[in-house]
């Protein structure tokens, strides 16, 4: 079995993976926060867990849509752009979404956005997948932007 060591000290890769993670965070946050805000403002009676699951799903969808649009702007055809966006790391996106929503749940009881929880959600949402995105970029050279 061949073991490949990853150099964790490459500042260029950290910067590129941070950029990739930030774009993913933007895409995920649009759907996630939009869903939570909708239920918060409309006061539609819906279980907190159901709202959070719906927020995660919508966050994944908006992240894929944003990535697809970015790739189309980089001259990829729609089918290739969508395939690349879908092939991006779902592990990264799911870990981002899960930690953002767990942070919201543990700090507010869930499905509540306010001025102090949003920055914390964004911070954990960024920091959780960032090392994985660095590793993936370093190991496979996979860059989605």
What does this structure look like?
- The chain is mainly alpha-helical and 145 residues long.
- The chain has one domain (13-138).
- It contains 6 helices and no strands.
- Helix 1 packs across helix 2, helix 1 (11-42) packs across helix 4 and helix 2 (48-73) runs antiparallel to helix 4 (90-108).
- The model has no long low-confidence stretch (mean pLDDT 92).
Summarize the structure.
This protein has 145 residues and is an all-alpha fold. It has helices spanning 11-42, 48-73, 78-87, 90-108, 117-127, 130-140. The protein contains six helices and no strands.
List keywords for this structure.
145 residues; mainly alpha; 6 helices; globular
């Amino acid at each position: 079995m061949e073991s490949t060591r990853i150099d964790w000290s490459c500042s260029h890769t950290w910067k590129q993976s941070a950029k990739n993670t930030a774009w993913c965070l933007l895409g995920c946050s649009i759907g996630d926060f939009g869903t939570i805000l909708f239920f918060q403002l409309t006061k539609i009676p819906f279980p907190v867990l159901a709202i959070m699951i719906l927020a995660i799903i919508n966050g994944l969808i908006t992240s894929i849509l944003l990535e697809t649009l970015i790739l189309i702007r980089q001259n990829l055809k729609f089918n290739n752009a969508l395939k690349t966006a879908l092939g991006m790391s779902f592990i990264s996106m799911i870990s981002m979404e899960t930690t953002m929503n767990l942070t919201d749940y543990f700090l507010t009881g869930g499905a509540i956005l306010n001025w102090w929880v949003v920055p914390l959600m964004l911070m954990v949402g960024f920091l959780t997948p960032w090392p994985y995105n660095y590793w993936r970029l370093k190991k496979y050279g996979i860059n989605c932007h």
